[in-house]
Amino acid sequence: MDINLRILKIEDTNEYWEVGFKNPDKDMFYYTGTTHYPTKEEITTFIEKSTSDDERRHFLICSKENNILGEVVLMDIDDEYRSCGFRIAIFNKENFNKGIGYKATKEALKVAFNEMNLHRVELEVFDYNPRAKAMYEKAGFKEEGVKRDALYINDEFHNVYIMSILKKEFMEG
Question: N-acetyltransferase domain location, by residue (predicted)?
Answer without folding.
Answer: 3-168
